[in-house]
Amino acid sequence: MLESLIFMFLIFVGGLFLTISVISLIVGIIKKSAKRIKVALGIGIIPVLCLGLIAFWYFISVPSYNKSEMENFSGTYVPNVQAMELLNENGINSNELELILLSDGTYKFDVIEGIGLKKNGTWKTGGIDGMFEFYDKEGSLLQWVSPSGSGENSRLSFKYQIDQGDWKNTETIVFEKK
To answer: What global pTM score does this model have?
Structure first.
């Protein structure tokens, strides 16, 4: 939310000073005043700085953070103890399950019906509220996953639909980094 407020403030300030600069420039040209033209160009620096900050944030800072987040969460994940119990209760042998996230943005998974992931696909960071997005090979969104922790203590929380006919009957299962 703070990011959105700052973004709106920068757009407002940039737009306001751009309007003032353009009006001053037009008046300076009409009155043939070199001093007024120089002032208008000086004021024009403010919108350039505002738009430059927005561009820096969205084209350099955020992608850099997402790349480091992807490298941080890359690795092999297995279900935690509670997830293993839940999966075993539903007839799934959870001892052999692995989710492998590669830093190039691809994943490999032992398919579990109810989680919604395919055997292979892509993943990326930077989703809504910091969630990870998992896609199939065709680029269709399969699952939103909540990450937590970092490094060797990384965890991924999946929504597991126990009964395929009842979309309300879901549990959260957690995969931990091996």
So the answer is: 0.73
